[in-house]
Automatic annotation (TrEMBL):
Annotated organism of origin: Collinsella intestinalis
Family according to the record: Belongs to the glycosyl hydrolase 1 family.
Record-given protein name: 6-phospho-beta-glucosidase
Entries under Gene3D superfamilies matching the protein: Glycosidases (3.20.20.80)
Keywords, sorted A to Z: Glycosidase, Hydrolase
Residues at the catalytic site: E366 (nucleophile)
Pfam families noted in UniProt: Glyco_hydro_1
UniProt superkingdom: Bacteria
Keyword Hydrolase: yes
GO cellular component: cytosol
Gene Ontology molecular function, alphabetical: beta-glucosidase activity
Length: 468
């Protein structure tokens, strides 16, 4: 008998801005990631305009906007029962402030979700996945302004009205806890030139919390059979040593991420959260009714990303990567080509931590390994390193289920090669399906199955039992 429930959802996850391309097609507006280039400083050394002399990999990406039908057939061949993607906000509302959404955008996503259903997959839809319309950053500095609450409410209402009959599983904001570490990426805020952006980040977080609660309330009213979750980056942190100061420092570093889950899943600001704000000199602007709205409209489940763990000691400062906050290396773990330390047991630990804390269903919506893949002369790709990573993490997830954690499903990031969120590269590949495209945009775009494609197909068919 399988260790996973019969209705466990297996699949994969992408984001619109990393896959669709067609960045100005059919009236789409610019989003914040449309003006970031390839490289490790892409969310620091950005300009709020497209430079025609520069190349932006995400502008074409893998052309999923035009190839989604064939790409989804490959996902169906692996047996996917769920596919996670996002709605690019600027594809519906080019500046974020139009009165009505673009029909072309509605038509695209309706056909995308219809195709998923025809192929036996439930859409798992993220409403805001690093795709804030650039015009909102320029006009309001995005979530730094309370104006964003009503603007997002209009977007959410349009999503539920137009796709509510197709989508049962929703996520509001992708990895929104990264506001503290990557404010431009997570919340579309330009904080360059600010000596201390934490007061702005905490205020933006409050606006997001109010917006999240309004969106949850709206979803429950309009789509009573749907489920709506929050999505957080929750790669974990261990104390660097058993020295009490190191243990407390790691605990407090972890709380900077769990703070978001505590508000969106428990419904109130935790005591340590108020202390964090006092320590940063923050006085939140809270309007009447905000806290009541947050308390009464908590998320149904927790979607989270898990890629790695890091060690943290007293005196360390967290360094951001899209795998989560990093303190220093753990000498007991091996690292990927991009320096992400691989820790399957950490996934089991994290699932238990989150289940014990929230007692709400968990959905592992991102887990994966970025690597350089080699295409052999015969077109084969022997990515045993990816298979090993996948096997070890599924084993850990199965252990977590046996521990008593309620886990809804697992979506590998990303099942087809896409543009890396962290570095903007095509070279950093996660997929079970190879896409012939490089960092400079060269290549045919041809899709090739890797060895991991066959392996994951076997895993899914056996509901996680056949991991040999």
């Amino acid at each position: 008998m399988s260790r996973f429930p019969k209705d466990f959802m297996w699949g994969g996850a992408i984001a619109a801005n990393q896959a669709e391309g067609a960045y100005r097609e059919d009236g789409k507006g610019l989003s914040i990631t449309d003006v970031t280039q390839c490289g490790p400083t892409r969310y620091i050394d950005y300009e709020l305009e497209v430079d025609p002399a520069k190349y932006y990999p995400s502008h074409e990406a893998i052309d999923f906007y035009h190839t989604y039908k064939d790409d989804l057939k490959l996902m169906a061949e692996m047996g996917f029962t769920v596919f996670r993607t996002s709605i690019n906000w600027a594809r519906l509302f080019p500046t974020g402030e139009e009165d009505e959404p673009l029909q072309a955008g509605i038509d695209f996503y309706r056909d995308l979700f219809d195709t998923m259903h025809e192929l036996g997959m439930e859409p798992l839809v993220t409403m805001s996945h690093y795709e804030t319309p650039l015009a909102l950053t320029k006009k309001y500095n995005s979530w730094a302004s309370r104006e964003m609450i009503d603007i997002f409410d209009k977007f959410a209402r349009a999503c539920f009205e137009n796709f509510g009959d197709q989508v049962k599983y929703w996520l509001t904001f992708n990895e929104i806890n990264n506001i503290f570490k990557a404010p431009y990426l997570a919340a579309g805020m330009d904080v360059r030139g600010m000596d201390d952006f934490m007061p702005v980040a905490f205020q933006a977080a409050h606006h997001v919390f109010v917006s999240n609660a309004k969106t949850v309330k709206l979803c429950h009213e309009m789509l009573p059979d749907a489920q709506i979750g929050c999505m957080l980056s929750l790669s974990n942190i261990y104390p660097g040593t058993c020295k009490p100061e190191d243990v407390m420092a790691a605990y407090n570093a972890r709380r900077r991420s769990l703070f978001f889950g505590d508000v969106m899943l428990r419904g109130s600001y935790p005591g340590y959260g108020w202390k964090m704000m006092r320590d940063c000199g923050v006085e939140l602007s809270i309007e009447p009714g905000d806290l009541e709205l947050i308390a009464e409209n908590t998320c149904d489940y927790l979607g989270f990303s898990y890629y790695r763990t890091s060690a943290f000691s007293d005196g360390d400062s967290q360094v951001f990567s899209t795998a989560g906050g990093v303190g220093h290396e753990n000498p007991y773990l091996k690292a990927s080509e991009w320096g992400w330390q691989m820790d399957p047991m950490g996934l089991r630990y994290t699932c238990n931590e989150l289940w014990d804390r929230y007692q709400k269903p968990l959905f592992i919506v991102e887990n994966g390994l970025g690597a350089v893949d080699t295409v052999e002369d015969d077109g084969s790709i022997h990515d045993t390193y990816r298979i090993d990573y996948l096997r070890d993490h599924i084993e850990a997830m199965a252990d977590a289920v046996e521990d008593g954690c309620e886990i809804m499903g697992y979506t590998w990031w990303g099942p087809i090669d896409i543009v890396s969120a962290g570095t903007g590269e095509m070279k950093k590949r996660y997929g079970f399906v190879y896409v012939d495209r490089d960092n400079e945009g060269n290549g045919t775009g041809k899709r090739l199955k890797k060895d991991s494609f066959v392996y994951y197909k076997k895993v899914v068919a056996s509901n996680g039992e056949d991991l040999a």
